[in-house]
Amino acid sequence: MALSNFLVTVVGVGAIVLLLRGDVRKSSVTLRRNLRHIREWLETEQGSAASKGEHVKPKEMEAGSSPPENPSSKGEKMQ
């Protein structure tokens, strides 16, 4: 009985860890993809303004938000 309780606990904890790992991985891939799109939009906006001869001041982030980190090359696109 003690052995079966131990095995059920190990399997349950293992399943939770696998589910959380997948969820974190998906979230990080989505975040990286969103940051890449935002960076492209800002570069496009700055490029179009520069071609018109306007002075472009980079937009500032809202207070309380953290600066974007460099995305690692590990993640694959998942949808």
Mean model confidence by pLDDT = 78
Supply the helix-strand structural class: mainly alpha
How is the biggest beta sheet arranged? none
- Count of helices? 1
**Helix and strand element order:** H
The unreliable regions are none
Report the radius of gyration as a whole number of Å.
Answer: 22 Å
What characteristic shape results from the CA principal axes? rod-shaped
Please estimate the helix content: 55-70%
Tell how many strands the DSSP assignment holds. 0
How far apart the termini lie comes to 43 Å
Query: Which percent range describes the beta-strand content?
Result: under 5%
Please, could you describe this protein's structure?
By secondary structure, the chain is mainly α. Helix content is 63%, strand content 0%. The longest helix is centred in the middle third of the chain and has 50 residues, at 2-51. The chain is rod-shaped and about 80 Å long. Residues 52-62 have a biased composition (Basic and acidic residues). The chain crosses the membrane at residues 6-24. Keywords: Membrane, Transmembrane, Transmembrane helix.
